[in-house]
Amino acid sequence: MLLLAILLLGMGNSFHSRMLWLGEQVWPNYYLLNPDAQEPSCDLIVDMDAEVKRRMDQYKPDPDALFSSAPDPEAIRRSLERNIQNCEQRHIAYEINQKHATPALGVFKTVEQGMASFLLENIDLTNLLFLILFAMSAAIATLDADLISLRLPRNRAEWRLSHAVQLGVNGLMVFSLLSYVSKLVAAPDTADLVRMQHYWAWVFGLFMVINAVRLFSIPDRLPPGKLDAASLLSIPLHCTMAVIAMSYFFFIDGYNSGLAIYFGILTNMSSIFINIGLYVLVGMALKQTQLPELLLNIIKPFQLPAPLLASVMIFATAFPTAFTGASGIFILAVGGVVYDELRRVGAGRQLALSTTAMSGSLGVVLNPCLLIVIIAALNKEVTTSELYGWGFWVFLMSASLFTLIVCKTQGEWRPKPVPGAFKKSVGHLRPLVPYVITAAAVIIGIRLVLDMGFNEYTAPMILPLVMLALLFLDSGKTRQEGESRSRTFWARSTAAASDSAVHIGALLALIGFTVALGGILERSDVVHILFPENLDNVWLVMLAVVFMLTCIGMVMEPFGAVVLVSATIAQAAMKLGIDPLHFWIVCLVAFELGYLTPPVALNHLLTRQVVGETEVLAAERTGSFWHRYERLLLPLLVMGTTLLLVAFVPMLFYAL
User: Fold this and answer.
1) What pLDDT is recorded for position 172?
2) Residue 63 has what pLDDT?
3) Which of 86, 227, 532, 648 can pair with 231 through a Cys bridge, CB separation 3.0 to 4.6 Å?
């Protein structure tokens, strides 16, 4: 319900603009019409000579004035004529107003102006809604122990370690927030900011209560055990980032409020990060439909061998990835289907795992991926159309490299279609027609009603409505016998919302502390050391850029990393001769590589979450070095090669 409220608020301005347009179409000069207008009190019939004489008679010379003189009768006459003309116009406007001032206009005007007043009075409501969204979703993720970590706790001791560290991190976050408040109260005009910091302190205080309860409320499924070095992997990633950031801010920089300030960047950009929540809802709603299976049915008659099917998956899943906003969301939604289908046709676990992980990364350079929208919003040197344009060619190159390597290393790749495969494939398109018509109807309907076209900026608001419509349609096709469509839809939509809450909380926590960790890079001299002002070799600059961006992508969540890179590395690199568009394309590819590279390898973590840890542990450990570690080596080879080509080949055209 909170996500729907956010969605409706986001569409509020478009709806109000459309109401104004509709009012103008139904009632000409709608902006000037007033249902409560009063008849003008001015007189249209005036005895001009008598009025001029009256005003002349009223004049009394001021004995103390040096330049007192009688008024000019002609000037008085001209003034009276202008007043009469204005009075005539007011009476004409009143007559026109009365002609159109119907009860319907009064009702419409009341609604329209009420909406306008609500939008103006709650212009800062987005920040509060984001805070509530974060508080609710992160609290659910903490209660369910679904925060992102390198692995889940395997015994009671690791469970206690995980929640004890979370308790400490949340406590230090409260301390940092209160430290920030103590500085703000001494500054003028900071009442709203102080109030927001108090809200955040209450939120992290709530997390502390949850951690304290869960510290002793341990699931029965966990056996007793002891801690070892590997137990550190059970600590949520955002806590590790927070500890590193806190250690720097508290002990090296003496900046107690640093953690609160950098985490607060999420509030300053709340509208963008709310979109992440909406995209997660899209992904989880997609997971509740049979659309992924229907799409896979199209290619089943061709009986593609594992290498070729893996390649088709990479090409086909890139575009849904872009529409779900980020790679991780797509893996959570469809990764299980991708993995199961690859295993069904005989793919080894290593190939299936690597393909599933990569299926959610190559689409981040395609329209309308949210990551590019954030880059363009933070950096005026580039536009979304430029980034999407070049991103499409980068996607083709990386996907083609994947195809070449997989078909070369896996052996047999030629398809063995069944008789009449094409006809059967076309037949499988028929069940998709209602879904296409429904999606098109929603998009066209929104365009007609709200004059809101579908693009990278409106996608976060339109796609949830499209997916809910598709989910309603799908509920009627796949409901159990005796169950109504509405009941099935309610069950599936609430399941999607529940899954969304967990993933939104885990993702936003990781993003927030990624930004805080990036504060170390911004406040230290690392950027100045790597990019000294006297460095005049642009090739060395690009080499340093590739190294830094890859390292950042390996350990940080990309949305938070973009904020960091925009404030630090981007400006330094551009001043030293790197083209802005080239820099950000390299950044996107480096982040794609980072998604797939240890020690964090976020996409591999999410793949493990959807296919199960048992499948990951059961992956082949025999054969050549390549086949034993293909799950990691294949993505690294594909994206590493792509990164080197994207980074250095374009420089041949502007750096020589």
Assistant:
1) 92
2) 63
3) 227
- CA 600 to each of CA 164, 179, 233, 236, 436: distance values in angstroms, whole numbers, following the listed order: 22, 31, 10, 11, 38
Query: Cα–Cα distance between 323 and 10 in angstroms, integer?
Result: 18
pLDDT band at 327 (very low <50, low <70, confident <90, very high): low
Question: Does residue 165 surpass a pLDDT of 90?
Answer: yes
The H or E element spanning position 55 is helix 48-57
CB neighbour list of residue 2: distance below 8 Å, 6 or more residues apart? 129, 132, 133, 136
Contact (CB, 8 A) for 307 and 410: yes
E strand or H helix at 103: helix 103-121
Rounded Cα distance between 293 and 295, Å, is: 5
Contact 585, 573 (CB under 8 A): no
Q: Which residue matches tokens 């955002």?
A: 238
- The maximal CA–CA distance of the chain, rounded, in angstroms, is 116
Q: Is the dihedral of CA 266, 267, 272, 278 positive or negative?
A: positive
**Nearest-angstrom CA–CA distance, 153 and 162:** 8
228-272 pLDDT per residue, tens? 988 998 999 899 999 999 999 988 888 888 888 988 888 888 887
- Of residues 173 and 599, more confidence is placed in 173
Q: Distances in Å between the alpha carbon of 442 and those of 90, 433, 477, 488, 525?
A: 45, 14, 19, 21, 51
Residue 143 burial (CB count, 10 A): 16
CA 41 vs. chain centroid, Å, equals 56
pTM above 0.70, yes or no: yes
- Pair of tokens at residue 112: 């329209």
Q: Which of 284, 212, 238, 215 is nearest to 138 (CA)?
A: 238
| End-to-end C-alpha distance for the chain, whole angstroms | 56
Q: Looking at this protein, which amino acid is placed at residue 46? A: V
Closest CA to 196 of 101, 110, 148, 130: 130
